[in-house]
Amino acid sequence: MASSLLELRSLQKAYGAIRVTDNVNLSVRPGELHAIIGPNGAGKTTLIHQISGILSPDSGQILFDGEDVTHLPMHQRVRRGLARSFQITSILPAFSALENVALAVQARSGSSFRFFGKVAQESSLNEAAMEYLNVVGLGPRARVMAGLLSHGEKRQLELAVGLATQPKLLLLDEPLAGTGHEESLRVIETLKQLKNRITIMLIEHDMDAVFSLADRVSVLVYGRVIATDTPEGIRANEEVRAAYLGEEEIA
Ligand SMILES: Nc1ncnc2c1ncn2[C@@H]1O[C@H](COP(=O)(O)OP(=O)(O)OP(=O)(O)O)[C@@H](O)[C@H]1O
């Protein structure tokens, strides 16, 4: 396998005179959880939009699994295994948690949606779906309508659906946003389970979560990657600490 699952080469994106992505070089290794952090407006969302295919870079290259995907539309990137959480996780509120995951298993296995109505009876789909629900800690809530789950449980369900589609790389854009304390602990626990199974690129403002989950962290400031290192290395990095003065706490 290539040493990088995802590689960004000299990526550039500007809005007028503002360079939002400024010569970004970044590599996500197979199996790692790579977090992207940075102060507000640093360009994290713009970067993830270019990786998923919502935005085109002005120049530079995006290589995924050894292939240049820079100019591929979003759906073709998804088909190659580059998935962003919200793209793969449109939860159906009137279906149970189990059914939501079973549909993702079915979609992945290439079965036709003609059998949509029979999904609940498909024991093999349900068994696989149940396993994914257990991974994210939602096993006991399998039969509950997705629309009735709490906000945090919906995030967990999204992650189970994401896992069921078996992408090679999961892009997670602030999975803890809007969760309360208890819920965020549960989602962090879920991410810990997930990270053993899949390569993840995570954008997250919650520094406790980032530092407890990430194998490596890249710090974006004014569109530039100023450091890529282990969490310990990032904590000790003077330039990173300076960039964060007055912003989020990183130690
Ligand atoms: N469509 C656009 N047109 C002009 N400027 C934009 C556009 N989208 C984003 N920007 C600017 O680009 C910069 C980076 O924005 P971006 O949303 O990528 O940052 P971010 O790091 O995700 O911020 P946050 O942490 O607050 O979500 C900001 O200055 C923003 O105002």
From TrEMBL:
GO molecular function: ATP binding; ATP hydrolysis activity
Assigned keywords, A-Z: ATP-binding, Nucleotide-binding, Transport
Residues annotated as signal peptide: none
Top-level taxonomy: Bacteria, Pseudomonadati, Pseudomonadota, Alphaproteobacteria, Hyphomicrobiales
Protein name according to UniProt: Amino acid/amide ABC transporter ATP-binding protein 1, HAAT family (TC 3.A.1.4.-)
One CC-aspect GO term: plasma membrane
UniProt cross-references to SUPFAM superfamilies, sorted A to Z: P-loop containing nucleoside triphosphate hydrolases
Domain ABC transporter as annotated: residue spans: 6-247
